Amino acid sequence: MGSQSKINLSYIxxxxxxxxxxxxxxxxxxxxxxxxxxxxxxxxxxxxxxxxSLYWIxxxxxxxxxxxxxxxxxxxxxxxxxxxxxxxxxxxxxxRFKKEQAKALYDAANLLNHKDSRLLNKKDLLxxxxxxxxxxxxxxxxxxxxxKADILKILDLIP
Length: 159
What we know:
With 159 residues, this protein is α+β, with helices and mostly antiparallel strands. The protein has helices spanning 6-19, 52-61, 81-91, 99-114, 122-138, 148-154; strands spanning 20-28, 36-47, 65-68, 73-79. Strand 1 (20-28) and strand 2 form a beta hairpin.
């Protein structure tokens, strides 16, 4: 990963606190036995007229992909359990406003990075469901949030 001085990491953490989001999602799948997969994402947003800062963040972190949206916004997305865990570990000391979400996403990424999805037991799935709720309740979301019951149903933890 690029030049990761404390100053650079603190700037990136501040950017994440203000113009970023942390997401732990369950994606439905039809092509696998489990019918679902987990996804950890760190996302930074910026008006496309000022997107240079996203390229700088990507250079410093050495990871992610940048895309322009149709609404005039550009985003830098970082996906993956290992990558999310590593980046959050470095940014955590500097994150102020999204500390609870960052800790929850870090814990989820750590669990998912160390355990194959097919080997997740009921306790692991309940923990992940609670982490999703923790992140979700602290995030601003334009779409309807899933309830805990919805999440438990997707995870086959309730009939």
